[in-house]
UniProtKB/TrEMBL annotation:
Source taxon at top rank: Bacteria
InterPro entries, A to Z: P-loop_NTPase (IPR027417)
Protein name: Bacterial type II secretion system protein E domain-containing protein
Length: 124
């Protein structure tokens, strides 16, 4: 678990993929960005409100894939109408949940998910 300053879950992942590149020429984005995408499971983005209170703004699952803008994510919870709510989407990689005896579909959608998300990338 770690924390860093970013304006969104996606930006946090881009930052994690960029900061190691500042170390010098011995490492490049072709190695770092896929490593970040494959190593992070979930990003919780909290914002600082004007009054100084922090609140969760979004929770996103990392797919393990890399797109043009960096590691790809699936939003699991987002602010809608001022409240944090489930998007109805499931994390694409569910093997770790299954090993822990947890079905994300029950938590996120109120139903059993079967093998949702256990296709490509489901082994993370």
């Amino acid at each position: 678990m770690c924390s860093l300053h970013a304006n969104s879950a996606a930006e946090a992942l881009r930052k994690l993929g960029t900061l190691p590149l500042l170390a010098g020429r011995n490492i490049d984005a072709a190695f770092v960005v896929p490593t970040v995408a494959g190593s992070i499971d979930v990003v919780v983005h909290a914002e600082l409100e004007r009054g100084g209170r922090r609140r969760v703004r979004e929770i996103a699952a990392v797919t393990g894939d890399v797109g043009a803008d960096g590691p790809e994510i699936v939003p699991l919870f987002e602010i809608d109408g001022g409240e944090l709510g489930a998007t109805g989407k499931l994390p694409p990689r569910t093997a770790k949940f299954a090993r822990g005896g947890v079905d994300p579909a029950v938590i996120l959608c109120g139903r059993a998910g079967g093998d949702a998300g256990s296709g490509p990338g489901g082994g993370a």
